[in-house]
Every structure is written in C-alpha cells, then in structure tokens.
Design goal:
- There is one protein chain.
- By secondary structure, this protein is mainly beta.
- The chain folds into 2 domains: 53 residues, no CATH class; 156 residues, Immunoglobulin-like (Sandwich).
- It has a 5-stranded mixed β-sheet with strand order 6-11-12-4-13.
- It starts with a strand and ends with a strand.
- 24% of the residues are buried.
Length: 222
C-alpha cells in the first residue's frame, strides 16, 4: 500500500490528530487501518508509527524486561567516593536504544510515571517488578545496608545509586566517614522505559557493594 496524501485536521494544546489516506491495492477507496475510533483521525503516536513504516523502520520491537547484577568494590572514604558505571550493552539491547539515546531519554527528575519516549529511574523491588515507589534524592536513591531506600539524612544511609545525564552513566556513591573495610551493602534501582509505541519495559539493577581499603572503585557485571 502506498500513502498518497495526508491532511492535518486539528491541533490544540493537548492533541494533534491527522487524516491519513491510504490507497488499498484492490480499491481506490481511501482507507485508514490506524483509525481505531472510526472517526477519520489517528493519534500523533500512530502518525509516528506510520512514518516509521514508510521509512522502513522496525516498529514492531517490544522492549524487554531484564535484570542485571554488579559486584562493586568501594574504598571507605571521607568524601562521596563516586564510582561511574557505564550503560551496559545489555540495557541498550533490551530497550533497542543506544547508550546516548538512553541518557537523553532518562528524566532529569523522578516522574510519577515516564511519558512516551521517556525513561524514569526508580527503586527496584524484585518481588514487585514495575511497581513505582519513589524514595528519591533528586535523580538517585540512598540505601541502608539491607538495600532499603532511605533519605540522605537517615542515620542508616550508607550508599547511593543514581544516573548522571551529563556523564551518561550510573553514579554510585557513599556516605562520608560512614563505612569501614569489610562492610557490605546492596542497592537496587530500575530504569523504566515507556517507548513511543506505548510499550513499557524495565531494567532492574542490583549493585552488591563491598568496602575494602584496597578497592579502586570498580563495578563488574556478573
């Protein structure tokens, strides 16, 4: 089928709808397979989908849920002792995005739910995947030794995990003068992706942290 015409119907602050005429191979009657409401209009998201079809892009890929685990070695510090963790290729593959696109789409603040085309950063509970629970310090989370999220000023706060859009990576840190060699902690965060075609997928990440005086600040994917 070939698209032979399109006409903008209306636009306001909240919605843009379009009429798409598609010439059926067996008839000259205009048809619109994307007109779910039968009123001659389709959403801007489906316009995007149709354009991708015309351009030959694969719009059928549904992002995948995955879980990752890292072994993290941190040295006890009198400052935040940050450790940068690049976006793993497994995350790119799951979302069908490049690392740069993931950084661009990740929200600068924690949304209640990500809008289409956005990625939100949340606390991850493996027992309730995709459940959004926000205990947040800007774009990251502080945790106690057991992996329970808490506020920065909580007496039990030991370590933190967040995402830095400018660096395009996860950033792990620690509470100054709080940890000693031999201490361990867990952090669990989730990237929740809401793609342009209204599909959701999450990447649940668990960071297993061990403190050592010999550590140089590393995160190794299991």
């Amino acid at each position: 089928m070939d698209v032979n015409a399109y006409q903008k119907l209306s636009m306001d602050d909240n919605n843009v709808t379009w009429m798409i005429y598609i010439e059926d191979e067996e008839s000259t009657k205009p048809v619109n397979p994307y007109d779910a409401n039968g009123d001659g209009t389709i959403s801007i998201a489906d316009v995007t989908k149709l354009v991708n079809i015309i351009l030959g892009k694969d719009h059928s890929y549904v992002p995948q849920d995955i879980e990752l685990e890292y072994d993290v070695m941190m040295k006890p510090s009198s400052d935040y002792g940050e450790v940068d963790v690049p976006i793993a290729q497994a995350i790119c593959d799951a979302f069908a995005l490049t690392a740069t696109e993931i950084a661009e789409k990740t929200c600068s603040s924690i949304p209640d739910t990500p809008e289409r085309g956005e990625i939100g950063l949340y606390w991850y509970n493996p027992d309730e995947p995709r459940r959004i629970i926000s205990y947040t310090d800007n774009t990251g989370y502080w945790f106690d030794a057991s992996g329970t999220p808490c506020s920065w000023d909580n007496a039990n706060a030991l370590v933190a995990a967040g995402f830095n859009k400018t660096k395009g990576c996860f950033v792990l840190s620690q509470k100054p003068n709080k940890n000693q060699a031999g201490d361990t902690a867990e952090m669990r965060i989730m990237l929740l992706y809401h793609n342009d075609f209204d599909n959701y997928a999450y990447v649940g990440i668990t960071f297993h942290v061990t403190f050592s005086d010999d550590a140089t600040g590393t995160a190794t994917l299991r």
